[in-house]
Amino acid sequence: MRCWAIIPAAGSGSRLGADRPKQYLSLHGATVLFHTLSFFLADSRFSQVLVALAADDQLFRHSDAAALPVQTVVGGDTRHASVLAALRALQGRAEDHDWVFVHDAARPLLLASDLQQLFTTLKDAETENFAGAILAVPVADTLKRVANDGTIEATVDRQGLWRAMTPQVFRFQALLTALISSESRAIAVTDEASAMEAAGHTVRIVRGRDDNIKITQGQDLMIAEQIFAWQRQ
Length: 233
Ligand code: CTP
Ligand code: MG
Hints:
By secondary structure, this protein is an alpha/beta fold. The chain has one domain: Spore Coat Polysaccharide Biosynthesis Protein SpsA, Chain A, CATH 3.90.550.10. 30% of the residues lie in helices and 25% in strands. The chain has helices spanning 32-41, 79-90, 112-122, 125-128, 172-184, 192-198, 220-231; strands at residues 3-9, 26-27, 30-31, 46-53, 71-74, 99-102, 132-138, 143-146, 152-156, 162-171, 203-207. The radius of gyration is 18 Å and the shape is globular. One of its GO terms (biological process) is isopentenyl diphosphate biosynthetic process, methylerythritol 4-phosphate pathway.
């Protein structure tokens, strides 16, 4: 049984609104993508690291990440399609029961301790009958359901609510089948777990670190710089 890493990096970073997709912005002297790929390449448990790039990507081959021993695949218009493209590139090489870790290119602050927690949880997958696991953190803020006119309709009980992060790890064949099924049923999936849930699989939550942020908007890159320095103190 082997492990594979898929890094979807075909997004445009529209919410951040920089002059290039956020995975090509610089974090502590290297691109965000370089940090993310290097993290997985440094772990010998992964047989291969695959990165999904936009069809019109002009930046990868000129970036520091181009020197890394990864396999590139052409991604799609959605994150879902990008992950599916990478899974299809594994067909014929990956066994049904291999584990596939999917991790956002835009989360360069993942630490080995979080990855280790996922690996530890997977040891129980067979006996406890779950199909995979994801990192997540409990919701800390009070949640409001808001009407279109900006008024509060309800306060949502946050008990039992978690924010999904990545990595998200599943068996190769189960994930491939679930993502194809979601695509054909036009189910919108923003993470792999939602496709697995829709396919009827049980997915485990692993409590992750709050500093595994996804660079998404505004000051996130600046915050990421601070976290990066703090993690290495
Ligand atoms: N992603 C991808 N293919 C897409 C869209 C997103 O591979 N068609 C990747 C992004 O590159 C990112 C991860 O999925 O690493 C998480 O997506 P998100 O944070 O939404 O990134 P973007 O889609 O680039 O940003 P935005 O939604 O603000 O445009
Ligand atoms: Mg997006």
